[in-house]
Amino acid sequence: MIYIPWTIIGLSLAIFAVTFWQLLRVIHRIRFASRKPIPIYAEFGKEVLPLLIALWGIVFGFIAFGQYRFASLIAIAVYLTVAILMLNPVGRHFGLRYLEYRRPLFILGVLSMAYIPIVGFIMTSSLPFLVKSIFWFFLPIDLTVFAFLPSLQRGIGKPMRQIFRPDFLFGDGRMLCCGLIALLFGIRYIIGPPPPADLPWALPKWDWWAIAFAMVFGFIPLIPIRGMMKLFMRMARLFENKFSGWWSIFVKEFFFIFTALGIMTGFHHVFKGWYPFNPKFFEEVQAAAAEPNRLLIGLSLFIFGFIWLVFVRGYYKRKIGEPFVVETIKQTYIKELLFIIGFLPLFYGYMSLIEHHFGVLNKPSMLAIGIPFFIWGLIMLIPLRVIAQQNQRRAIVEQMATVILPAQPPQIRRKVMTKIMEGLATCPEATRLSIMRAMREALEKYTDDETRKIMTASQMECLAGLPDERRKILMKTMDKILSQRSQA
């Protein structure tokens, strides 16, 4: 039976790989539209790739020689891979000082993820139960608090002549990932397996292969890879009117569900102390299925959550329309509420299928832990993530206005800017004012005179081509921005 989950994982990854390859082809055309192509990651092959090859060569060397007790190296190497990619001083190739494009809050957020392997060593030590409890319960706090801080505007760096911008991808993606973990902790302590009779609450038995599974199939694809996929899809829709149909919605939401299941499965095995898809896992699945109506209820809730996330929430996201900058705060709140409505039954259904002892309220000491984490997870995934997404959209607008669009040929630049301006003319005034102000401030702060002239000329050409009513709306907003600047 162990081949079944790994086959599903392999087929899912194949679908994502094909879609990502198609996206890369679109991004390739956008990058090379200008005489000086914009790199995805500057000097990756010369500076970063050799480090990663050396790192993973050491890890696989230990494993190849049968040193399975060094499984902790997998989790450590995964973290170091992320840290190298995100903290590499790539901005020096563009004349930027390090703290201009890697803000202290962002650096703190990346470094804070080292707490995951630290907790692993604590949980596998002989330290007292109370000490282990303190370190364990601080994990979701560390993961969530230091996810929100990098998502603030002060955590996002200057625009940079590079496609891969982890500073504005990291905060939102990690908030989604770690908000899910807070919910997972909360629900597990509320209605999950009870603790041993002599203990007030449950602690994980820990397994390094399990936490590595959660990182490789959950954290990594959900935070940077899905973030890049979303960014590439936005660019593809803007520049080439591609990836705007139901297939792109399906792939994006299915990718999220895949990564969420990776996190759930990984942490489930962490609690059990099993390596992924241990024979005991399948024994417990069979035991759960043997309970009356458990299989029917679990599958029904899982399928409902899947359909809701992909088709109901996907339909609403399509209804918001393009370009992405027109999305209002209210619409973002509705998206997150729809997400919670779909994710909770998905999670409950999945855990009902794989966890024998699930669905009954735990004793008060477990509830005292689970309820606060559950509430905190909801706070992370709704109001705080809305703030993160607003900041991320602002950062993408700044990158588009100062780097991507100025590098394009005039005809492509005018086409994309016209699409953006038509969208802004039809959205609420507060959203229009915020986006247009962000574009203007970014051009003034981060570009030279020549770039500002290019973008101003293109803006005027696009305005002239709009219908009178929409042109007047945009001119009125521009006048308001100029008035506010003069009063400041």
How much is the average pLDDT?
Answer: 91
Q: Based on CA inertia axes, which overall geometry fits?
A: globular
Alpha-carbon distance between the two ends:
67 Å
The domain count comes to 2
Radius of gyration: 24 Å
Number of helices: 18
Helix content: over 70%
How many strands in all? Answer: 0
SS content category: mainly alpha
SSE arrangement, N to C? HHHHHHHHHHHHHHHHHH
Which runs of at least 5 residues are low in confidence (pLDDT < 50)?
none
Largest sheet: none
Q: What proportion strand? A: under 5%
Structural topology:
Elements (H helix, E strand, L loop, with lengths): L2 H29 L12 H21 L7 H16 L10 H4 L2 H9 L2 H9 L5 H23 L14 H26 L16 H33 L5 H27 L6 H11 L4 H27 L8 H26 L9 H41 L5 H17 L2 H18 L2 H17 L2 H20 L1
Helix pairs in contact: 1-9, 1-10, 2-3, 3-6, 3-9, 5-7, 6-7, 7-8, 7-14, 8-9, 8-14, 9-10, 10-12, 12-13, 13-14, 14-16, 15-17, 15-18, 16-18
Overall description:
With about 500 residues, the protein is an all-alpha fold. It folds into 2 domains: about 5-400, no CATH class; about 405-485, no CATH class. About 75% of the residues lie in helices and about 0% in strands. It has helices at about 5-30, 45-65, 70-85, 100, 105-110, 115-125, 130-150, 165-190, 210-240, 245-270, 280-290, 295-320, 330-355, 365-405, 410-425, 430-445, 450-465, 470-485. Helix 13 crosses helix 14. The radius of gyration is 24 Å and the shape is globular. The termini are far apart.
